[in-house]
Amino acid sequence: xxxxxxxxxxxxxxxxxxxxxxxxxxxxxxxxxxxxxxxxxxxxxxxxxxxxxxxxxxxxxxxxxxxxxxxxxxxxxxxxxxxxxxxxxxxxxxxxxxxxxxxxxxxxxxxxxxxxxxxxxxxxxxxxxxxxxxxxxxxxxxxxxxxxxxxxxxxxxxxxxxxxxxxxxxxxxxxxxxxxxxxxxxxxxxxxxxxxxxxxxxxxxxxxxxxxxxxxxxxxxxxxxxxxxxxxxxxxxxxxxxxxxxxxxxxxxxxxxxxxxxxxxxxxxxxxxxxxxxxxxxxxxxxxxxxxxxxxxxxxxxxxxxx
Length: 307
Ligand SMILES: NC(=O)c1ccc[n+]([C@@H]2O[C@H](COP(=O)([O-])OP(=O)(O)OC[C@H]3O[C@@H](n4cnc5c(N)ncnc54)[C@H](O)[C@@H]3O)[C@@H](O)[C@H]2O)c1
What we know:
Blueprint: H1 2-5, H2 10-17, H3 45-49, E1 55-59, H4 64-75, E2 79-84, H5 91-103, E3 108-113, H6 119-133, E4 138-141, H7 157-185, E5 189-194, H8 209-229, E6 234-241, H9 247-255, H10 259-264, H11 279-286, E7 297-300
C-alpha cells in the first residue's frame, strides 16, 4: 500500500479510496470514467515480486516441489543454488537449468551435491555461495523424506531418528546456514521452510508418526527462528502443502491406487494438488510483497484441514 502511494499515477485514487483526499477530475484526468490522464498507469505490484539479482538456495531441489519452487524464483530473476543428495543432477533438473539459462538476464540455477543432515558441510557450501555472489537473500528448505509406514506401537527409535534427521535437523541446518549469510550481509532475507498439512492434522489411516511429528516440529522451528531473526529483518515462514502429486506421493499411490480417491475426497476441492500450485506462494514469501509476514504458516492443501 505504501509503495502505491509513492508518486505513482495510482496514488491519488488510492488516497481517495482511503478517504485521505478528494480527487479533482480535470479534462485530462477524468478519474470518474476510469481513465488516468495521458499515460496509462503502470502497475507496481509486479516489481514487488521481482527477485532480480537475488541469491539463494533451495534444498531438495533435484526434483519435486523444491525444483518447481526453484524455477519460480529463477523466473523472477534470482540466482538459485539447488542442494540435493545425488552426486549429479537429474534429467529434470538439467532441463529446468537449461530453461533458466535460456531466459538469461543474470538468472541461474546451479546444482550442488550435499546432505542437509551434515550441518558443517551445508554451512560451508552456503558460505561459499555468499562469498562468490557477495550477497544472500533467500532460502527454501524443501528437502524431506516421508519415512516408513509402521504402526505407532512398533515404530523403532532408529527409524524415527532417520526421519527427524532430515526433516527437522536438516531444515535447521539449512536455515541456519542461510541465516548466517543473511546476517553477514546485513540486508535481511526470507527463509521458507516446507512443512506439511501433516504438521497440523494427522493423515487419516496412515501410520506416519515420525513424518507427522517432524512436520509439526518444522512449524515451531520456523516460529522460533522468526522470533530470533526479526531484528535482523530476516523473515521465516512455512508452507504446508496437502497431498501434492510428486515422486514422494507417487510411490504410495502406485502401491495402492485406491489412495488417489481417498486423498482427493479428503479436501473440499476434491483433488490432489500439483507441484506448480506451490509456485505463487513461494514467490510471494521470497520477495518484498510479503515484507511484513513472518512466523506464519501458509496451508496449501485444497482445504484439507477444514474438516
Ligand atoms: N508431495 C507432497 O504431497 C507433500 C506434502 C506436504 C509436504 N511435502 C514436503 O515437501 C518437500 C518436498 O517433497 P516432494 O514431494 O517434492 O518430495 P521428493 O521426494 O520428490 O523430493 C524431496 C527431495 O529431498 C531430497 N532429500 C532427501 N533427503 C535429503 C538430504 N538428507 N539432503 C538433501 N536432500 C535430501 C531428495 O533427494 C529429493 O530430491 C518435503 O519436505 C515434503 O515433506 C510434500
